[in-house]
Amino acid sequence: MTASRTEAVPTDAIETDATGPSRGEVDKTLRAILCDVLGLDQERVERFDAETGLFGHLPELDSMAVAGLLTEMEDRLDIVIEDDDIDGEMLETYGGLLAFAEAKAVQG
């Protein structure tokens, strides 16, 4: 009988398959990013739904914070966000940001 060895997996690592990470994994990672970048309380972010307003609704999400948010999304979701990809609609609600992140994650 051989001993099995387990390795620590970073908590921000996401599982993927041939079509990219699961919706739940992208959602979980995106919520963690919002907490970390904007300094939001985890309980508050857990209550976000698709209609929760972001840019223009959260004082923490100003134009400077957007740059940090997008950079963290690229790093943690292993995606590339081009300048042309960014519009006000994707940042308007949590649902819009999640849909954007999911689409980019599938593109890989």
TrEMBL record:
For the region Disordered, what residue ranges are annotated? Answer: 1-25
Domain Carrier residues, every copy = 21-105
Protein name, as recorded = Acyl carrier protein
Residues forming coiled coils: none
What Pfam family is a match, any one? Answer: PP-binding
